[in-house]
Amino acid sequence: MNALNIPQGSTAHSAYSLRSSLAEGEERRTLAVLVVNEAGVLARVIGLFSGRGYNIESLTVAETDHVSRRSRITVVTTGTPAVIAQIKAQLSRMVVVIDVHDLTTEGPSVERELALIKVAATGEARVESLRLADVFRARVVDTTLRSFVFELTGPSDKIDAFVELMAPLGLVDVSRTGVAAIKRGPEGM
Amino acid sequence: MSREMTGAQIVVQALKDQGVDTVFGYPGGAVLPIYDELFKQNDIRHILVRHEQGATHAAEGYARSTGKPGVVLVTSGPGATNAVTGMADALLDSIPMIVLTGQVPTFLIGSDAFQEADTIGITRPCTKHNWLVKETDQLSDVLHQAFFVATNGRPGPVLIDIPKDVQFATGTYRGPEDAPALPYRPRTEGDADMIEAAVEMIETAERPILYTGGGVINSGDEATRLLRELAEATGFPVTSTLMGLGAYPASGEAWLGMLGMHGMYEANMAMHDCDAMFCIGARFDDRITGRLDAFSPGSKKVHIDIDPSSINKNVMVDVPIIGDVACVLAAILERWKARGSKLKRDRLTGWWTQIDAWRAIKCLTYKGSETVIKPQYALERLEALTRDHDRYITTEVGQHQMWAAQFLHFQEPKRWMTSGGLGTMGYGVPASVGVQIAHPDALVINVAGEASFMMTMQELSTAVQYRAPVKQFILNNERLGMVRQWQQLLHGERYSHTYSEALPDFVKMAEAFGAKGIRCENPADLDEAIREMLAYDGPVIFDCMVEKHENCFPMIPSGKAHNEMLLGEASTEGAIDAGGGMLV
């Protein structure tokens, strides 16, 4: 035990690459799915994943074009290459789906996630949380004398790392958006 | 063309503009406005079924035997939930079907109102797409889009949920040509490079097989014609799934019979040993492939399918062609002719010799009897006495279904209606009514087991009401025969609940319905009894008492490969191991 009473172990290893390792032969893919924003569209997509036993690691959805009623769903999934191909084919044939892109394989892309992290601490732990927030370029968006709410954007594993570091310092709550992703370069979907 | 009318009028107008002549349905509180409009017109005929499941299967029978979408109209809540089985059935067998459900008025949705159910939520996984229409102005667009979705790409059931206030309210009707296009645009033309690769395989194949399925029939009559042309021109042997029977004529020289779990020995052996497999409108279903890692190990495979998700789903193929069967076959034949129709027929001689050796096994051989009617014999006689008729066959699900597929022969498509993918007991009685409504002068026979028949036999009342002279040909073994067969082979002959102790007297029941009942128990009387059935101008229940413990062979035990078929009782000992027992 050190001065902060932080148990050894969880934060002693590198702060990066904390995502769980994949099963043999499985891959992690980020899919961008452009859909017609009609009632129940998210339930359709989720129902496909649950009904056919596919994994969802993260899923975000929001309308991206109000005029033409388009929503964009970003889903991070895992599976063997054959399963990933099935997922893409099953999504593509849905009546509400306009387009499916595999951002992991179709050239470089940027993935970001936003998290709001509440830490309640006083004294040395409070100071340490602020220091670490600075290291991670997290912003303080709310504060009381006993707590902070940090806003952090970045790849998912960066957020994982920050959350893990906060755990022994007085982590209270985490709210994450899930991954939003977009292709690099000038081309659209 | 746009006009103001009520939602209920819009529904009827849209059906007319889509060419609908028949609706299968059952009224209820939430669809009363639509029924009121149906009452005021004569263009669309409404068939009142006895249960909503019956409406969906009748619509399936109508659709499969005509190639047109089947239309169902039912009320909210239980009306919709009762229709679920038929939609799931149509989804797995790719049958175009439009289901219209009433819904409680929009202002009551979510309040647990009387006969309210979350129809959209319940039917989402068993429809190709579904819509809840909350504005009367959107109703005509959605109806026209629904017909487009049901009939384009891989066909399937769609559902439109229409709240009662939307039916009463006034809105603008727009015709089919004015409906906005959906992003759903299935691809019909195959990729040129892949078609070239398929043609090269035709040119070099030494042990080829055409493995055809329901997609050929769904694609339309042109696809059937092109398949026959391809088989004729190449001299390749043809087999088919349960769903595809009739696309290639059973009397054709290249016909090997059905393949799969209870398919022909020669068809399955040819699938296993071939070097070039051409899968046309089929989907490598588990009833077809048997053990996947031993499935046709030495072959290159072409797969033609309009649904991209069918490609590489169960079996990895070398040449995937996404497109409509008719378009793709036309392109293949055109490229093949352009390249000189190269084919060395003598190269196929060895292959055909091998196939003839497999044929000589005569895998459908069964032990005859002079005292008991063997189910196979009953179907042989039915085939012999009806083959010259304008004949449509439906079935239920089980042993009788497989025997019917083995012993009845189909020369044309759309003559064989059976529940393949979902395996729905109770499909056949309503389906036969739907077929007869579409083809009033044809001979429509439902080959049934007594257990399946009893699941939906109330539709006999529909048949009587609409003078649909359907023949219910029941192979009555007083057992759930196929389940009993599995219990014998896999569960130590412990026949758990597969014996129906209290069956009705089907002859008396027929009479009670206003139909004719015939019972036959003696092989010597069978021909005469079948003739009596055929001669009667009205619905008949034919209670054919058959051997009670007959098993259906040949059979690929679950978990086994194509070349591990069981040919008869002698080979059943330990046929299914523990792994196979896990499978269905």
Question: How does this structure look, described?
Answer:
The complex is a heterodimer of chains A (189) and B (584). Chain A has 189 residues and is an alpha+beta fold. Chain A has helices at 41-51, 81-92, 123-135, 156-170, and strands spanning 27-36, 58-65, 70-79, 97-102, 109-120, 139-144, 147-154, 171-176, 180-183. In chain A, a hairpin with a 2-residue loop joins β6 (139-144) and β7 (147-154). The longest helix of chain A has 15 residues, at 156-170. The radius of gyration of chain A is 19 Å and the shape is elongated. The model of chain A has no long low-confidence stretch (mean pLDDT 90). Chain B is an alpha/beta fold. Chain B folds into three domains: 2-178, Rossmann fold (3-Layer(aba) Sandwich); 192-359, 3-Layer(aba) Sandwich (Rossmann fold), CATH 3.40.50; 375-552, Rossmann fold (3-Layer(aba) Sandwich), CATH 3.40.50.970. In chain B, α1 packs parallel to α7 (136-151), α3 (52-66) packs across α18 and α16 crosses α17. Classes of the chains: A alpha+beta (189), B alpha/beta (584).
Task: Report the C-alpha radius of gyration of chain A, rounded.
Answer: 19 Å
- What separation lies between the terminal Cα atoms of chain A? 51 Å
Shape of chain B: globular
Proportion of residues in extended strands of chain A: 35-45%
Task: Give the CATH architecture of the largest domain in chain B.
Answer: 3-Layer(aba) Sandwich
Quick description:
The complex is a heterodimer of chains A (about 190) and B (about 575). Chain A is of the alpha+beta class and about 190 residues long. Chain A has helices at about 40-50, 80-90, 125-135, 155-170; strands at about 25-35, 60-65, 70-80, 95-100, 110-120, 140-145, 145-155, 170-175, 180-185.
Main attributes of the structure:
heterodimer, A: 189 residues, alpha+beta, Alpha-Beta Plaits, 2 domains, five-stranded antiparallel beta sheet, four-stranded antiparallel beta sheet, 4 helices, 9 strands, elongated, B: alpha/beta, Rossmann fold, 3 domains, 20 strands, magnesium ion binding (chain B)
